[in-house]
């Protein structure tokens, strides 16, 4: 399994590390004493008792090391200046709902200074006021930030009028509209807000508001930036997804540093089965390495980041289905018969998966394992269950086109083995029906899994649940007329706060006088 790992949280000056046996040598480093060491010098380092250690050293051939990624140096330090430059173009969206403002403040304190903070709240009204007070205080030293509430009627009207009405619903018992409840919906509001108000932010990241270790948040943001910096296909749209070192649980008064969250265990497994089915259905064989693999390890990655263009281009799912559905959406766009196949295969070999957005741009997905344990609000079993069920629903109800009867596409002939005109039509039919059967088998297996894991009261009505829930899938945010959205939100907003963003003025009092320029003599990025 290929996964990029954080080796050191702060690796210093930015000189790539030397890797023994690698063609990748340190830039600008002096070989010095080290280059004059020969084997006997190394022998001196070990006593007889260290036989095992020496065997280990001699057995290790970097060529055989699965962690060595094509196109990416095996071990590399990202220069601080490069990280800072990316972080300075990043907006970090923090969806929150009912967290203690002190906890949220802890999260904000971990977000590097260059990043724009975007708090999207769905807390109840009075709590939002406290959150904003906390944000104002936190940003008092000229920190740029945005805050908005998901019930903002102006934002809802703007979505409704300018291209994304699906995101909006009537308030129960009221006459006005609001943005639907759900984490995914809050994230979409955040994406639209950044794209409309701060268009120069090229990257958008998501960090939960209930993380209780600020240092972890800091590592996540820097890992996002490192992922963008490491992209071996510069210029491609990129998604960086994090896998935590551990997700600790307290059991019998002791902390158990368990590696994989309960929902992730299930969702990763089924996403990998989906990938495997796609590999089986791929006539070119370019996805062969994905068959029976465990390559997807970040199916539920709440902490992830994207190039803004990608965030605007993807269809997104509601609530907690948003992260697993990213994979389903990208796999749906994967066209193994053409240029994307080469990207996919190369990307797979290098430790990330690739897909295509509808405008046919290749997409690189970087999966990174961070170092800090991930501590957050404890959730109960039914919450976890509904989370993995909605992940399975993303797969079950939205099989990618190549496995789906109604949308199965006929493959184009492979350049190396062009089928004869007479044989092509029947072989394509056979291919389509086999792919369909694979898709149906996967769906059947998901139903079996649900039946095996059935619990009393699986839904509030106590009905037997035969199928996983069908996620609501929203069109890409790109569909929104951003100018119209911005002007309506600017003029009619009820809950929007813009702190220290001198380029964007609100006509009504929520604006806080920009102090950045006076204090620092420079203008922050938009
Ligand atoms: N704006 C907004 N609106 N935020 C919300 C909403 C909403 O309707 N619902 C939840 N949130 C916020 C929470 O306040 C929290 O900061 C974040 O979204 C994650 O919600 P949790 O309820 O803490 O989710 P979780 O910890 O069970 O799951 C997290 O990790 C999973 C991976 O293990 C989420 O990030 C999942 O999306 C992720 O799959
Ligand atoms: Mg949480």
From TrEMBL:
<feature type="compositionally biased region" description="Acidic residues">
    <location>
        <begin position="31"/>
        <end position="68"/>
    </location>
</feature>
<feature type="region of interest" description="Disordered">
    <location>
        <begin position="453"/>
        <end position="472"/>
    </location>
</feature>
<protein>
    <submittedName>
        <fullName>Glycosyltransferase family 55 protein</fullName>
    </submittedName>
</protein>
<feature type="region of interest" description="Disordered">
    <location>
        <begin position="401"/>
        <end position="431"/>
    </location>
</feature>
<feature type="compositionally biased region" description="Low complexity">
    <location>
        <begin position="422"/>
        <end position="431"/>
    </location>
</feature>
<dbReference type="Pfam" id="PF09488">
    <property type="entry name" value="Osmo_MPGsynth"/>
</dbReference>
<feature type="region of interest" description="Disordered">
    <location>
        <begin position="15"/>
        <end position="73"/>
    </location>
</feature>
<feature type="compositionally biased region" description="Pro residues">
    <location>
        <begin position="412"/>
        <end position="421"/>
    </location>
</feature>
<dbReference type="InterPro" id="IPR012812">
    <property type="entry name" value="Osmo_MPG_synth"/>
</dbReference>
<dbReference type="InterPro" id="IPR029044">
    <property type="entry name" value="Nucleotide-diphossugar_trans"/>
</dbReference>
<feature type="compositionally biased region" description="Basic and acidic residues">
    <location>
        <begin position="453"/>
        <end position="470"/>
    </location>
</feature>
């Amino acid at each position: 399994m290929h996964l990029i790992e954080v080796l050191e949280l702060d690796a210093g000056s930015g000189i790539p590390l030397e890797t023994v046996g690698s063609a990748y040598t340190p830039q600008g480093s002096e070989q010095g004493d080290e280059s004059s060491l020969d084997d006997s010098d190394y022998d001196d380092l070990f006593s007889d008792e260290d036989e095992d250690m020496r065997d280990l050293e001699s057995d290790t051939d970097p060529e055989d090391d699965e962690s060595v990624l094509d196109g990416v140096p095996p071990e590399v330090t990202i220069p601080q200046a490069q990280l800072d430059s990316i972080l300075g173009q990043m907006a970090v969206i923090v969806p929150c709902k009912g967290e203690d403002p002190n906890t949220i403040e802890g999260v904000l304190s971990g977000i590097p200074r260059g990043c724009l903070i975007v708090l999207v709240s769905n807390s109840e009204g009075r709590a939002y006021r406290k959150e904003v007070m906390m944000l104002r205080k936190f940003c008092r030293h000229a920190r740029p930030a945005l805050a908005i509430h998901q019930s903002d009627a102006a934002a809802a009207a703007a979505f409704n009028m300018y291209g994304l009405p699906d995101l909006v619903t009537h308030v129960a018992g009221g006459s006005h509209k609001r943005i639907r409840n759900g984490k995914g919906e809050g994230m979409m509001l955040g994406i639209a807000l950044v794209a409309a108000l701060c268009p120069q932010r090229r990257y958008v990241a998501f960090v939960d508001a209930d993380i209780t270790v600020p240092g972890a948040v800091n590592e996540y943001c820097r890992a996002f930036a490192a992922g963008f910096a490491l992209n071996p296909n510069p210029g491609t749209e990129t998604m960086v997804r994090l896998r935590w070192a551990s997700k600790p649980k307290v059991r019998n008064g002791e902390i158990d540093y368990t590696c994989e969250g309960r929902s992730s265990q299930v969702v990763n497994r089924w996403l990998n089965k989906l990938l495997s089915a796609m590999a089986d259905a791929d006539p070119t064989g370019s996805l062969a390495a994905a068959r029976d693999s465990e390559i997807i390890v970040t199916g539920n990655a709440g902490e992830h980041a994207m190039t803004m263009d990608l965030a605007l281009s993807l269809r997104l799912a509601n609530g907690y289905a948003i992260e697993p559905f990213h994979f389903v959406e990208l796999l749906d766009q994967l066209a193994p018969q053409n240029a994307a196949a080469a990207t996919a295969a190369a990307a797979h070999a290098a430790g990330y998966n690739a897909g295509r957005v509808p405008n046919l741009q290749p997409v690189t997905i970087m999966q990174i394992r961070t170092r800090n344990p991930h501590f957050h609000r404890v959730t109960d079993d039914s919450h976890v269950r509904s989370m993995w069920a909605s992940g399975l629903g993303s797969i079950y109800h939205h099989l990618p086109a190549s496995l789906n009867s109604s949308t199965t596409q006929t493959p184009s002939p492979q350049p190396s083995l062009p089928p004869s005109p007479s044989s092509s039509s029947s072989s394509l039919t056979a291919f389509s029906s086999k792919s369909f059967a694979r898709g149906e088998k996967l769906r059947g297996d998901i139903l079996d899994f649900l039946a095996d894991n059935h619990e009393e009261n699986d839904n509030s009505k106590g009905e037997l649940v035969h199928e996983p829930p069908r996620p609501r899938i929203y069109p890409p945010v790109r569909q929104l007329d951003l100018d119209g959205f911005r002007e309506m939100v600017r003029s009619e907003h009820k809950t929007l706060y813009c702190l220290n963003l001198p380029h964007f003025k609100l006509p009504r009092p929520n604006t806080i006088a920009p102090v950045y320029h006076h204090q620092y003599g420079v203008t922050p990025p938009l």
